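The aim of this short unit is practical: by the end, you should be able to scan a pair of folded records and say something sensible about each. We start with the first protein, listed as its amino acid sequence and then its structure tokens.
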Amino acid sequence: MDCLIIYSRDGERRFQTLTTRFIPNMKAVEFTVLSAELPAGHLSQGANQASGSVRELIRQLGIEIIDVLPVRKSVPPDEKRA
């Protein structure tokens, strides 16, 4: 399932995509957003500094997850619609 994550950081609206086999859980959404917002290699360091709480790190960075929406893939051109 492809999903569009809508979130804001310090009031600026941002978007990220996530592909999973099934409906994504909140941890997958949080880690996707953090990996997009933190420089490479800082995710594990940042998580340790935030007393082990990913949600606390998200709060400290001023990130608010607004919505997670399923994204429909386009129909291939050779496939007929019903």
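Turning to the second protein, read its sequence before its tokens, just as you did above.
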Amino acid sequence: GRVTVTERFQRRNGSLGSRIAVLHDRYERGPNGWLLATRRYEQLD
């Protein structure tokens, strides 16, 4: 799976920041259902 996220944050000095990233997830089916196997974080900006 893949999802685009926008993060907004406040730095220690008080200034604001943001970033856009994509999470690339891979799932595996286990005995009790689907599990997140790996997640890769790709920052776009």
